[in-house]
Design brief:
Layout lengths: L1 E14 L2 E6 L2 E7 L6 H13 L3 E2 L5 E3 L1 H4 L2 E6 L21 H17 L3 E4 L7 E15 L5
Parallel strand pairs: 3-6, 6-7
Antiparallel strand pairs: 1-2, 1-3, 1-8, 4-5
Length: 149
Amino acid sequence: MRALVQRVSEASVTVDGDVIGRTGPGLLILVCAMQGDQDAAADRLAARVAKLRIFRDDEGRMNRSLLDTGGSALVVSQFTLAADTRTGNRPGFSSAAAPEDGRRLYERFAQALRDLGTRVETGSFGADMKVALVNDGPVTIWLDSADRA
């Protein structure tokens, strides 16, 4: 699985003009399941995100995690994180998980974050969503569950 993690002051996701999810200080997490991903990848990625030390401590250093700060998360599915841009001008998305697997792993990732004690809101899998955010820092981190055992 892949995740693009953004430290935010606030973020929201809107579908058909209605805000369906939001977070205050915390993380906006764009998530994509890849072909071959299993439940363990979603669990492992959620734990990495929750423990990622990208929040400021009392000295202003990035030394605290989402769990340390008690922040919340907005989790949004984004299959375009699977984009293959190695050839041509049109990205390919064949490495993304099939929609049914993608939905299941997206939901498992969000639940794994909840199980770790994080307040989580979500977008709507497969919907045309509008995402608004105020990136704090800015801090944006790319994670891939395949990068680490």
